[in-house]
Amino acid sequence: MKSKLDENIPAAVLSDLSELGHDSCSVYQQGLKGTADSQLWETVQAEHRFFITQDLDFSDTLKFRPGAHAGILLIRLREPGRLKLRQKIKDLFANKSTEDNWYGAFIVLSDHKIRIRAVE
Fold first, then answer.
1. What's the pLDDT score for residue 32?
2. What is this structure's pTM?
3. In what order do the strands lie in the sheet with 23-26?
4. pLDDT tens, 41-64?
5. Quick check: helix, strand or coil at residue 117?
6. Fewer CB within 10 Å: C terminus or N terminus of the chain?
7. For residue 54, what are the β-bridge partners?
8. Residues 25 and 5 sit within 8 Å (Cβ to Cβ)
9. At residue 112, does pLDDT exceed 70?
């Protein structure tokens, strides 16, 4: 799966996803830190990447309709420290069939559950 990490996701997640066979890049690597959400979204769309973020600006499923993009993983943890974020993402990608089930979906990962709004 091709994914892009937003600037609010720990850089160490890149190596974790790479070890799991994913083609991942980050906003930092591409010099997009601080870029407006609209411009960042255009880049994500042009690259056809699954977007991993904590930014609630990407939570509007009317604006970011499932099936109209490669997928969004919105992470909503009560205490989103770097280590906890990294472990939750690593566990999620290690235990799920992401490429088959998540392409184009809007996914919310919280402390105790995952909600998947699939392509309609």
1. 93
2. 0.94
3. 23-26, 2-5, 50-53, 72-76, 106-110, 114-117
4. 999 999 999 999 999 999 999 999
5. strand
6. C
7. none
8. yes
9. yes
